[in-house]
Write a structure and sequence with these properties.
The complex is a heterodimer of chains A (333) and B (240). With 333 residues, chain A is of the alpha/beta class. Chain A contains 13 helices and eleven strands. Chain A has helices at residues 2-27, 70-85, 99-107, 118-125, 137-149, 171-177, 207-213, 231-234, 249-252, 278-284, 286-295, 301-313, 318-328, and strands spanning 36-38, 61-65, 89-93, 113-117, 153-155, 165-170, 193-196, 220-223, 240-244, 257-259, 272-277. The termini of chain A are far apart. The relative contact order of chain A is 0.17. Chain B has a single domain, classed as MetI-like fold (Orthogonal Bundle), CATH 1.10.3720. Classes of the chains: A alpha/beta (333), B mainly alpha (240). At the A-B interface, helix 1, helix 4 and helix 7 of A face helix 3, helix 4 and helix 8 of B.
Chain lengths: 333, 240
């Protein structure tokens, strides 16, 4: 009896492990561990790209950081590789975790700069309420810059793209109901279900704002894990779902999903601003800001969606995706 | 800088949490709307209780008959113990996400996911509880001509009540505690307070945890009382 039980429990343990493993693999895509190291794009000796290498920059070493998700790592890599092409010695320290860790690392001088979002900087780092964050990119940038100034930091001008919440739906429903902007939902939202993150329900820059500023009432709101935001649309459970403007699915499956334009500007601007220390700006010279402003000009929403798709869906490394962007946009030869 | 404040003493946050449970509090992100308070807390607690009862009922419906039958026949140890143990290893969140594609999110998905959590202890304890019943009374019952069904329900089950109930109590605690993840699957339970620190603040998180803990302890107490009622008088230990 005893030996039999032992054998059986071994069997049970093995079955359990197999179940856990298979479910785990099904549920979460693997993350990339390629987080830090020297940028290799430095080797491209200005072979006809728009960014010209300045030999004088060679004596300056810059360490570019980023937070620990695909989009931040991609933008971090783009800046790093562009600066390398401009002749700087560049190291990267990606995957710094949350914005509080990234900012702390920057202040302590371990990194020279990292890409931050205007909305995140204002809300999370400087404790503004979401309603106080401008939806206009330039206004949000200036507000963030002024706050950073107090800590001896500065921010370069914002990217063209804004990473923000957005009301999304299926192309089919958008066509049937004639939906292009969030305002188009007036009079129709009462019969439509909205799905969003649990947090969204009470937030003024999410459901509460849609109700207050657009005057919309939805048939129902259902909280779901953000990992399910496309699943619920695909399954036909949700009529509307809160998506992110830079979601890779919006470029990879653009015939299936659309986002509605936030015409009353409820969702705060989330443009990327490169945050750095004043002392680094002085030491690095004029090419520092020039290169960063130049290289981000091509970062429009469709381009960023496509770059995210490369990393999140096609499993390229952020480094590869950034290199592809720099090459195809003609920044490096 | 809110990000670098010294950690508060637990006592302070417990007081803040208690205020949060009873009185609506301001929040940074709601545009002035108050959050928390007794109405919202009761509503969330009620939903939590609702899904707990549903999931517990489903897991009892599936696991009790199977466990009792297999225990009585003395067969299917692999199923009752092995699968039971394997079932405990299934990660709930992954299960919810997995089933979201098949049946969508909502109460049905959640009930099944939580029932999966309740089945292993009920199944295993039912099987083991019946198996470990002293053979002498069972043989005696058979000897006086009781049918197999009578033996199971009149002899074995009453003698196995403590083990059976232990399984149900384990399942209840597991289910009521795990029902906090329901807001990730479309159902608003007390987990709303716990997973949305950005909205409810630390007080909300602690408040949610306190109410869930109180609910779990109350259910445990209730089931302990039920177990006493169900245990046959002859089995109760009495002071001489």
């Amino acid at each position: 009896m005893r030996t039999k039980t032992t054998r059986l429990s071994w069997l049970a343990v093995c079955t359990g492990l197999v179940l856990v493993l298979s479910l785990g693999v099904a549920a979460c895509g693997s993350d990339d561990d390629d987080t830090s190291g020297e940028s290799t794009a430095a080797e491209s000796e200005g072979g006809g790209g728009a960014i010209a290498a300045n030999p004088a920059n060679g004596k300056v070493t810059l360490t570019i950081g980023s937070k620990n998700f695909a989009e931040s790592e991609i933008t971090g890599e783009i800046y790093a590789q562009a600066l390398a092409a401009a002749g700087y010695k560049v190291k990267t320290d990606l995957s710094l975790g949350s914005e509080t860790i990234a900012l702390k690392t920057l202040k302590q001088g371990e990194i020279s700069g990292y890409p931050e979002y205007t909305s995140t900087a204002l809300e999370s780092l400087f404790s503004l309420e979401p309603g106080e964050v401008p939806a206009d990119a330039q206004a949000a940038y200036e507000k963030a810059k002024a706050e950073l100034e107090k800590d001896g930091l500065t921010a370069f001008p914002p990217t063209p793209f804004s990473s923000a919440n957005a009301v999304g739906t299926t192309t089919k429903l958008a066509e049937e109901e004639g939906l292009e902007t969030v305002s188009d939902l007036e009079g129709k939202s009462e019969s439509l279900t909205l799905y969003g993150s649990p947090e969204c329900r009470q937030r003024i820059d999410c459901l509460a704002g849609l109700e207050k500023y657009y005057g919309l009432k939805f048939k129902s709101f259902h909280p779901v894990d953000i990992g399910l935001r496309y699943t619920v649309l695909e399954k036909g459970q949700a009529d509307l779902s809160i998506l992110f403007t830079t979601d890779p699915q919006l470029s990879a499956e653009k015939d299936k999903f659309v986002i509605l334009e936030d015409d009353k500007e409820v969702f705060p601007a989330g443009n990327v601003i490169f945050v750095t220390r004043n002392s680094v700006v002085e030491a690095a010279g004029p090419d520092y800001e020039k290169t960063i402003v130049a290289v981000q000009e091509g970062l429009t929403l469709p381009v960023v969606q496509e770059l995210n798709a490369r990393v999140e869906l096609e499993k390229q490394t952020p480094k590869q995706a950034a290199a592809a962007y720099l090459k195809s946009a003609g920044y490096v030869g | 800088m809110s990000a670098f404040t010294v950690p508060q003493l637990p006592l302070g946050s417990i007081q803040g949490a208690l205020e949060f449970i009873f009185e609506p509090q301001p929040s940074n992100v709601t545009g002035g709307k108050l959050v928390g308070g007794l109405d919202q807390t009761l509503e969330l607690a009620l939903t939590q209780l609702e899904v707990t009862v549903l999931a517990l009922a489903l897991s009892m419906l599936l696991a009790l008959p199977a466990g009792l039958y297999l225990g009585h026949r003395g067969i299917g140890e692999l199923l009752a113990v092995g699968l039971g143990n394997a079932g405990r290893a299934i990660p709930e969140l992954a299960l919810i996400a997995f089933m979201a594609a098949a049946i969508g999110v909502g109460t049905l998905n959640l009930t099944i996911a939580l029932a999966v959590l309740g089945i292993p202890p009920i199944l295993t304890n039912a099987f083991v509880g019946i198996r470990q019943v002293d053979r002498a009374p069972v043989e005696a019952a058979r000897g006086i001509g009781m049918t197999e069904r009578e033996i199971l329900f009149k002899v074995e089950v009453p003698l196995a009540i403590p083990t059976l109930m232990a399984g149900i109590r384990l399942a209840t605690i597991a289910i009521v505690a795990t029902a906090t993840i329901a807001p990730l699957a479309g159902v608003l339970t007390l987990g709303d307070y716990i997973i949305n620190e950005n909205v409810y603040g630390e007080n909300g998180v602690v408040a949610g945890a306190i109410v869930v803990a109180v609910m779990a302890l109350s259910l445990e107490l209730l089931l302990a009382l039920l177990q006493r009622r169900l245990t046959s008088k002859g089995l109760k230990l009495r002071p001489a």
